Every structure is written in C-alpha cells, then in structure tokens.
Amino acid sequence: MLFGFGFKRSTLLIFFLHGLIFTMLLLYKGIRNENKSSVWLAAFIFLCTMYITPFMLGYAGWYGEDPYRAILFFVPFQQLFLVPPILYFYIKSSLNTEFVFKRKDWLHFVPAILYGIYSLIVWITDKIVLDEYYFYANEQDKDFALWYQIVGFIMMMLYLFASLKLYAEYKKKTYETVSFADSILYVWMQRFLIAFIGLLIIRVLFFILNPEWANFGNKYWYYLAFSILFYYIALSGYMHSIKMNLPFLPQLSSSETMDFLAEAEEKNDSSKVTEEVEVSITEEDKIFQKQLEYFMESEKLFTNPNLTLFDVALKLNTHPKKVSYIINKGFKMNFNDFVNTYRTQEVIKKVTSNENASKTLLGIALDSGFNSKSTFNRAFKKQTKQTPKEYFSQKN
Prior knowledge:
mainly alpha; Rhopdopsin 7-helix transmembrane proteins; Arc Repressor Mutant, subunit A; 2 domains; 18 helices
C-alpha cells in the first residue's frame, strides 16, 4: 500500500491510530456497561479521526495516484454535518442517564443523511454510470468545498451553543436540587466544551492568519493543532468514563422529584407548577422558613453529604418545589448554597470552640457534611470571602 512516510504524514498517523484505539475502547466500554454517553463519545472521536484522514493520506501521496485518489475523492471523510449532533447528544446523554433517543431526534441527522446521499450520487455517476470524472472534473475533493466548510462550521457553532445552554440549565437545576452539586457538575464536561470551543477558535484563527488557507500543503499546522485537542478529548474522555462519579438522578426514587429534575424540554410545565406554588404559599412562607431552619439546626440535616431537596421536603411534608421556592425567595440563594452555609458555619463553630481538637480541618469539614476538600474550599470561600487558611489564621 502506498504511504510515503515523512514528518507531516507520520505525526498525523500517530493521532489517527490513537483515535481509532480510543474509539474502540469507548465503544466497548459503552456497550459492556450500557453507557450511552460512552457510545456517543466513541462516535465523536471516530469522526474527529476521520476528519484528519484526508490530510494524513494526502501528505502520504494518495491524491497523486489512482486508485488511492478515487478513495479520497468519493469517501466523505469530513462529516461536518454529523459531528455537531453527535456532540449535542453526547452532552445530553452525559447529563441525563435516563435519556432515550427518540424518533424525532433523527431530524438532527437529516443534513448528514442528505450529504451522504449526495456523496453516493457523485460516486455512482463518476465511477459506474459515466466511468469518468464528471463531478470531479476539477480534481478537487468535495469535502473541502467552500460552501460545505462554511455551513459545517455554522452548524458546529449552533450545536455548541445548544450544548452550552443544556449544560447551563443542568448546572442551575443541580444547584437548586442537591447539596453536593460540585461533585456531580462534571468538571470533565466543562473541559470537554472548552476543548471543543478551542477547536473552533483555532479554525477561525488559522483561516484569518493564514492567507494561503486554500492551499492543501499550508493546512498542516491547523490539522496538527486539531489532532492535539481531539487527542486530549479522547484521553480525558476515556479516563472520565472509568472514574466518573455516579450521577445523582438514579439515587432519587420519588417520581415527583424525577419530574422536577427532568430536562429543559419540560421547563414550561415546571414553571407552571412553580407559579401555582408561589400563589399558594405567599401567606405561609415565613412559617415554612422557620420550620426549615428548625430542622436544619436541631437535626443537623446538612451533615448528610448526600442531602437532596427531596429529603428536606419529606421532613417538611411538602412538595420539593415548595421548599425550593421558600429557599429562593426567603433566603435569596439556591439549595446547594443554602445547605453549604450551614456546613460552613458548623466548621467555624467546631474549630473556634476547639470541639474537635484531635481532628484535622478536612476531617471537621467532612463531619460537617462536605464530601471533598475542593468542595469545602470553594463553599467556604464563597461564604466568607476567604480561604479556610486565611480565615482561621486571622481568628488565631
């Protein structure tokens, strides 16, 4: 098989092979563990791997000789209409383990299907019907057509925006529902989205800074930068799939709470219920506030590191949305910050009173309901405007 080894094609070959390896690993892990998000990520990594393939093979001499040139011409390696929805459904399946791909979701893949049909028509016409280059008379790969690259870039921007919006809604809902939000907000998801934004930014920068962008040979540094970023996504994504925390959704058994935690598409129904609750508790909110404070202080509910809005609602014998409304309106904060306020105060109380002299500060924080050092540090600084070290140094 023709493959002229050299610096450019060899470096891209390394990323190509690793991309295929991570694709198979993620696919195997997703199927074995019935983890939908790993399968979607495997598809994303595979498409990124295919994206650099024409340049790896092009630098190796494939565009210069038949039948290799025909393979590059007629195989749609750069699936610019397929990558964006794959990205979106990876985010969606990661943030909601109950997500089920529905028939209407196929609409997202209509542009990719149409482009696939177009590529098939081109192949049939040029290789079977006419047996000569008609569509490829100019000998330029259709994957690099300006219209396709521009429309594909716009689709990526739109789906990236939709993914960011999805994550923002998830983040807000999480802070309003559980007291361990920092543990399940998927730092990896933030890094993944940042890395994908980086992919788009370097594409724009290379297009602006490289006046000879249209020349095949001058795109190498862009594809190298792209390869490094997608390799980071593949490596980090696989590590995340191994050690990721269990999501909080399956831990809540109440159907009411599950409805409350439903995804953004049910947002309209949720807002209606909230409005109804607001009307019904206007005269009782202060009583509920006092009851809530009593249970938090007397029974120290906050010391439960897995405390949820549903747990508090059971204590108050009311609907979770009612508790959420009381906290939002009466205390001017979300549920996560509300609980962490009590935890922070408990840490300060125990340290200043020398109640737990034999324990470390982290040990006291864990006893007070925090589930990690990083969560404790963030919450403490948010409440006191100082790190624990700075705060207690001043007190001493």
